[in-house]
Amino acid sequence: MTFAFDPLSLTLPQGHFIDGAYVQGRPQIEVRAPSSGQVIGHIPVADAAMVDRAVTAARQALAASGWAGLHPRDRLRALHRWADLIEADALTLARLEAVCSSRPVAQAVTGDVAVTADQIRFFAEFADKEGGDLVPTAEGSFGYIAAEPYGVVGAIAPWNFPISMAGWKIAPALAAGNAVVLKPSEMTPWSTLYMAELAVRAGIPAGLVNIVLGDGPTTGAAITGHPGIDKVSFTGSTRAGAAIMENIARTGIKPMTLELGGKSPMLVFDDADLDMTTDCLERGILPNAGQFCVAGSRIIVQRGIADALAERLGSRFAKPRPAPTWAEEPGFSPIISEPQLRRIDGIVQAARAQGAEILTGGARFDRKGSFYRPTLIAGVTADNPAVTEEIFGPVATFQTFDTEDEGLALARHPTYGLCAGLFTRDLSRALCLTRRLEAGTVWVNRYGRSRDHILPTGGWKASGLGKDLGREAFAANRRTKSVLIDI
Ligand code: NAD
Question: What's the whole-model pTM score?
Fold first, then answer.
């Protein structure tokens, strides 16, 4: 299979995807390829009326198809067929993903697309296996908890893994019997549109998966504030998550799950395996140029191992070679946009101005496209912006500690609590510290999500509300009804 492609040669899906068909609108937002800066296409912005059209289509499709009332195995089979088509068309999807995102096309085929199909199958399996609950009630009565779909789920996704994020939202919602209106990021619309097209081709009734394009303040707000949206599922920044909470509070309370930002610590003890830890620290910040929510961007190392680790990381950080996302061999990823690259550099320069030492990197690559050098920053205090801010780039801070308590204090972030990495050979210490680390996920002697989709993901503190993946994500797409019958 040849992965490489010409970015201007792709046939791009055009318009919103509503009720199983493309709906055109005035092209308003320019979509650029971060690998080259070229304009790849334009997208329309769905206003309140267009969002309403999508919500109405979703409601009508639910009623006409009887989706929620189908035999659960029929929903399951439809989702498996969707996963089949996604796998069969992996290259087309991956190219549409790669052209304007930071995902190298080869990785999108073997990683993003393959994992998304796998996760759709994972959620499909819940359709006929998760029911309600018969509960103990007083003699002469019969009590149970029924679980029912919400109706129409409004989903909003970020740009950093467009296919996966869409899959995380759509698959559990459909498996549970809902319809979806989803807005992908305005920077990465194409692959999500094509996924929705494949859903219809797979026999999922038209109108159950609707994609509206546009920005956050117009289209996103129209979704979260629409009275016909029964539940909101959001992944993105903590700032946008707060704006969504505010809009929901203003326009009518509805349930929401929010997967938000992170600033995850990598806590390394002297007894850690040096080779394995170096690999994990590298994997924790360099893939996708650090643009992933669970990036291990704060490296916190016990003094005895610090020099050896800093030296190894320095040479690892010097290695990556950028390449356009459409190159045959995956290269180091671009930063999603020039404004985001300038933001990253701004934080790095502010960190330096506050006394930090840039061990390696600290500038953009001298070439076409938005590429930033892997950057390792030492000599930071707790209030340094490189420590406090989610940078969302290939930038990690390096701090040292002596005692376990000091290490834990550094690991604790005042705002975020998405993930934490812990590296030690001492099993007792590992077990104790997994309890004390303030994070929704703790990885010990490894870093990054696995294919164990049963493990939910979601943050503590300002990193989120509720979970994606796992049984929890399926449950989050149903509401319960308590029933008590006197007999
Ligand atoms: P973002 O918040 O800027 O945008 C995310 C999505 O929200 C986009 O589709 C955007 O158009 C929309 N949006 C923005 N403002 C909105 C508003 N007021 N109302 C409704 N929608 C709005 O985030 P991003 O830059 O696309 O993605 C990066 C962020 O996402 C990082 O903070 C990262 O940590 C987070 N993220 C979290 C997870 C997780 O699982 N916790 C996963 C991936 C990304």
Answer: 0.97
